[in-house]
Design brief:
47% of the residues lie in helices and 17% in strands. By secondary structure, the chain is of the alpha/beta class.
Length: 148
Amino acid sequence: MNKEYFDLAFIEAEKAFNNNEVPIGAVIVKDGIVIASAYNHKEEDMCATSHAEILAIQEASKKLNNWRLDGCSIYVTLDPCPMCASAIKQARISHVYSALNNSDPNNLFILENIFKTDNVNPMVEFESNLDSERSKELLNSFFEKQRN
């Protein structure tokens, strides 16, 4: 886990916040080099799949000219949803570092099952609650702003 990469993910999340998107950011790293970063674009794109993780995976795949992101790690400001977790698994990302666990207790159960080794893809290492206070503060500020 590297704090610098979380800082970059939070910069992405702040971009989402400033664009009235749920403030989630993602950064993909390979061999100590940031190869992709993104934030949620669901409202802007009017697309349910425009999550930070998906957009970062697309950028990383283009940059590496390969859909297989073996040896990459992803830093996210909130635990991935099941859709993003499946994309992470399919992209063969090795490690997920998350700032905050999702408030839905079922999400963790689902993620653990997705990230297990299966007959096709290797296991994804997953760590959560690595920068929870910063993530909670940003998310709470966003939803408070939305209510006002």
